[in-house]
Amino acid sequence: EMCIRDRTVAEFLSRHPAVERVHYPGLPSHPQHDLARRQMSGFGGMVSFELRGGFPAVEKVVGALRLFFLAESLGGVESLVCYPPKMTHAAFPPSERRRRGIGDNLLRLSVGIESPQDLVEDLRQALDGVS
Hints:
The protein has five helices and five strands. By secondary structure, the chain is of the alpha+beta class.
């Protein structure tokens, strides 16, 4: 059930024109999809994605989300959005973040237990404001 939620969100993001790239091992397009399928019973609740439009797009999307709350915690059941360059990876210098693939356009979702349709609709309304 959780995997369905995560995959629904990841598939939606992979089709949205405001999204440049999605990082989720449950998508067949992910470089390590086959390995993850062999090693994991599910693909996890984390979905990262890169927005077209850089940090200005990030600000618009995060500001428009209603169900995904801006937070670093991963311990709850609610859906969260994290901006790694200013939150979890803020201590890294920009050059090190870039080297690790953490661009200024990266957002990370912790997909919670809300309805997948509600989560997708929240993402749609937020992303439609930047595309």
